[in-house]
């Protein structure tokens, strides 16, 4: 901080205690005098806001995002100037007691290739280098501070991540002598370093010509430097773990930022005379909405007034670059601290209650190994799902995963040995009437979760049940009993009911497409009421179904503390048919699908009332897309008055997001007393597109998860409760110890 170099006029500003200077994307919400609409906050929120209250591992939950992005208060729509908190991203503009200098905003790297320009390319590049070096120092501050988040054993230190007090509990990003007693929090220090670096990254796009366009009606000059109109991101402002000079080939010859003096004008004055000024290039001001749309641009930003698109280009680049920086930061943590500790650090940064939400989850996967299941190869699907799920969880010593098996016998303790018999043998044994003991499998799974953390399993435990169970309708008593028990104990049950292809001659002759898995009367609502998910899984898609099913569970929230929250949208994928529940207390459900250009899809909605799942009711379906404001199709259905199933076909002319919304309309007319309650339905997606393509998209998402703590609260390790050293997940995994096997 170079207080002595700050001009006298600026020192007066400090005395006036204005919250910020007008030197960057705005930090405060003061449209009238400063022309700022807390643009840094909005860019940061656009980059990191979560769709619901819970983090998916990369987005920031509410209080944590407030620390990074800041928040601003208004009174009946009028901003309270300086009300609120600038957050870490606003810290470089905050007077504490002085803002950070030009290096924090990437100013003064101005250059235009015209004869006699006052600063040559070399000097402009040197100014850019000073900015990047400054941001690298802030980036380093962030990852160095992260070490303090955890104990040496890798457990979160609760005092280091405490943010629970909304009044006075905010981080203080200032000189240490001005910080409050809670300022020693490592989480605040990490967020400060990251946020201050983020500020410069965002400013680079607001203050430079990297992404913008020049005024086509004026000649190129110091008041109209060329716009580079680049759609890629500048690598040197996000590769902040790098050292040494920025590689020359990364700096376009015509790159320019603006020269900044307090009297910031076009054309420049004082030290900035004859130069491109901050004022000339700035795209700092305009209205940004949290849905990514824009309001008016400006004021007092000539570059955006000449080409209004310039503000949008700068904001979009800044949002994308912010996410890139976060990706790089996570990679840096992983490089410095290893996967296990870095995943825990990331969880502790993005979640508001990390001490509770990042630790001690327990997952039991219950696999149906009955003859009926093996005969139809449903056990392979179950195994693939177990592997897809555990492959997506991060492991550390603080969570536990066990696999339990069950079959038609009562030997639910059978250890997981991978495929117990060869296919050849399976084909010879055909006992179609044997029933898996699903209630027994659930009971064992619940026991395992409780035993894993006897003092703290509530809301942090889940049982994933995978079965092809043909349950005779009236045989579900044990299952229902266990589902009630899970619900009472705060353990979620996710139920994958595996539909099987026809195998018997009769089925083939009848051309039956599927033998739908039959969970038993009332099982679907009982599963959903544990907070978990229920899906029919078509075995046809096999490993794809496994990956999609894992995605569905993790998106929804494996355990109570991972809950996606109200407003959740279920992503549909071929092969997975999720069940959902509508009622007076949860009147809306949303499903979405990203359709490719030319893709024909069909949504098949089936009311499960005739299957003795749920009760009678009426609801309206609406299909919309993100490309038009109009409703594509709408339809009202009443459980017990219609056939119980209908389709909504649609062909996407362009790539688009299709959203199917169900709204509860009340009980069906003439419902009897026992028919009042929740409606249960399933939504199946059919597509004519080769699902291999769709699969690639999904896998990309998976990879992001793999590098970025996709499942923050849940890092898992297969732990045997007897402390034995577990083996591997593969089907050839050797048994170790008394019944539990490592999944890695
Ligand atoms: C660029 O400007 C700097 C400082 O103004 C000067 O020292 C340097 O010699 C100049 N370089 C060239 C190639 O003209
Ligand atoms: C730099 O900008 C000038 C003026 O717009 C243009 O003539 C020149 O080709 C550009 N140079 C490079 C290397 O892009
Ligand atoms: C709609 O969503 C698709 C897929 O995400 C996207 O490619 C497209 O640009 C979006 N269109 C609009 C108008 O938002």
From TrEMBL:
- Say yes or no: keyword Signal present: yes
Tell me where the signal peptide lies. 1-24
Source domain of life:
Eukaryota
Keywords attached to this entry: Signal
Q: Which InterPro entries match?
A: vWFA_dom_sf
Spell out the protein name for this chain: VWFA domain-containing protein
Q: Where is the composition biased (Polar residues)?
A: 717-733
Q: Where is this region: Disordered?
A: 703-744
